[in-house]
Amino acid sequence: MSMTEPAPAPAPTRRFGLGAARGTALLPESSLAGRALVIVIAIMAFLASLAAGAVELVAEASNDWTASVSREMTIQIRPRAGRDIEADLRRASDIARRAPGITDVRIYTRKEAESLLEPWLGTGLQLGDLPVPRLVVFKVSDPAAVDVAKIRTELGAIPAASLDDHRVWLARLAAMANTLVLIGLVVLVLVLTAMALAIAFATRGAMAGNREIIDVLHLVGAEDRFIAREFQRHFLRLGLRGGAIGGGLAIAAFLIAGLLAARLIATPGGDQIEALFGAFALRWPGYLAIIAIAGLVALITAVVSRTTVFRNLRGLD
Amino acid sequence: MVRFENVGLRYGMGPEILRDLSFDVPPHSLQFLTGPSGAGKTTLLKLILQTLKPTRGLITLFGHDTATLDKDAITRLRRRIGVVFQDFRLLDHLTTYENVALPLRVQGKAEASYRPEVIELLKWVGLGDKMHVPPAILSGGEKQRAAIARATISRPELLLADEPTGNVDPTLARRLLRLFVEMNRSGTSVVLATHDLALMDQVDARRMVLAEGQLHVYD
To answer: Which of A75, A230, A244, A269 has the smallest CB count inside 10 Å?
Structure first.
């Protein structure tokens, strides 16, 4: 084709105003429900991040409890007629001291044993006549070396002695923690699923609003994957923005909660929180999980929009 | 290049609006598609472009039976066809330059590779000073020229133009017709749908006349 006729208009003075190397987006931003969708994605990312952070917090607290509890064991000796309880206590502490992997063996005095009952019975009571069980408490320095069965066998020589290695309590604790983690993960999956559905609806709406543009693109030779890529690019941008906002807010929420918990230390409320969640401070794996969720949110947004566009374009046939 | 054999089209259960269309568009040919308003010129162009499927008959495009092609294959064939729509169908949020460059952009070409060519074509159709404005502020004639530039920028093997001179003055109409003739001389087959008898009289070309759903070809 030869086009030699003189130009009727002067040559433009400015460079093509396409901005980025790719040029203007083929789908107009104003037609794509951008701001509302970013808010929805940010809320979903925030909720998903809270769920993930809570899961991490519970898992960490459970590990802390388990570690501290499993490093302590107790021998309980109940008073029994005809038995010298002090002698039984000494025998029991000797058995514990001889056992490998055990340190800090200590016999709780009668006063200490009675003080353990105070939270339930109150103060000022005369417990001298009550058969208060006595305790031998010791720490486990090397859990692998401790032979619990052997200690139990040796304690068999003391009729009223029993060894408590907290196994039952640990099992219940683990079950509770696992249930909480599972609930958290289910919440996480539900939130992400709801978000994916919202993206799918938004994509369908955007396609309906841009039907004319899609038709023109088809007519000038655009393949479905080109059109899907245009939608995907747009929704990925929204997803990144929403994920960053939601994840950022969740990180800020955990940081503020950690600071507040730190300020509440030594108050009754703070003690309760510490008893449940340790320091109530999310550790770095928790923050990493939140960042990963923000990325996952953006990825889900892009993939769902692309899939929805493909499915709908096929439907146009 | 394009072959229709006993093609018919009806919408739903209605009567056939086009029937027994049998013709071909040979390579390097120029033809006018004419007929009264509502005769089905635009519909026939849509059948060639495969945005409408016939209810009967065989359409062969560039040697391919279109009934056997999938969507992507038809899209690839469309890249060999330039189309000027009666209603222009320019994208309002893009500049004139971006509209004209669209067929090259959707093929994944780098902007640097086609920029000079697009500028040259825009100047040639008289839109050199309007390349950065959106179509909304172009006049009807300018939109028409932008649409023609978009249809021709990828040097298609077949050009379909639906009333391409309907919105321009006679001088520009002659100039645009010369563009189509020049494209035809350089190897592009051209189908110009028009009911402008004066325009048709300027070029000695085949005439395909649609009337009452049937096509009569006058070589």
So the answer is: A269
**How many C-beta atoms surround the C-beta of residue A165 within 10 A?**
18
pLDDT digits (tens, 9 = 90+) for B182-215: 889 988 999 999 988 888 888 889 999 998 889 9
Angle between helices A224-263 and A268-277 (to 10 degrees): 130
Alpha helices in B153-192 (DSSP H): 170-185
Polymer length in residues for chain B? 219
- B175 reaches A (C-beta below 8 A): yes
The answer to the question of residue B87 being in a domain is no
Residue B21, strand partner residues: B7
Q: Does B91 touch chain A (CB under 8 A)?
A: yes
**Is B120–A3 a contact, with Cβ atoms under 8 angstroms apart?**
yes
Interface predicted TM-score of the whole assembly (ipTM), two decimals: 0.87
pLDDT for B186:
87
- What pLDDT shows up at residue A119? 74
Residue B206 and residue B144 share a domain? no
Across the interface, do B98 and A23 touch by the CB < 8 Å criterion?
yes
Contact B111 A18 (CB under 8 A): yes
Of the candidates B78, B91, B183, the beta carbon closest to that of A1 is on: B183
Answer whether residue B85 is part of any domain.
no
Predicted confidence (pLDDT) per residue in A100-153, tens digit: 888 888 988 888 888 887 777 777 767 667 788 889 988 888 878 888 888 888
Contacts of A14 in chain B (CB under 8 A): 132
> In angstroms, rounded to a whole number, what is the distance separating the alpha carbons of residues A253 and A53?
10
Q: Which domain holds residue B29?
A: 2-80+156-218
CA distances to A114, A159, A164, B186 from A78, in Å:
13, 9, 13, 110
* B86 assigned to some structural domain: no
Sketch the domain layout of chain A as residue ranges.
29-66+171-316, 79-159
- Minimal Cα–Cα distance from A205 to chain B, Å? 19
Helix axes B71-78, A224-263, angle to 10 degrees: 110
Grade residue B39 by pLDDT with cuts at 50, 70 and 90.
confident
Provide the 3-class DSSP secondary structure of residue A59.
Answer: helix
**Chain centroid, CA A259 distance in Å:** 18
Q: Under a CB-based contact definition with an 8 Å cutoff, are residues B163 and B193 in contact?
A: yes
Strand (E) or helix (H) holding B216: strand B214-218
Interface contact B106-A221, CB threshold 8 A: yes
Please count the structural domains in chain B.
Answer: 2
B62: left (phi over 0), alpha (psi -120 to 50) or beta: left
Among A294, A136, A309, A122, CA closest to A234: A309
The structure's pTM equals: 0.71
Report whether pLDDT(A3) > 60: no
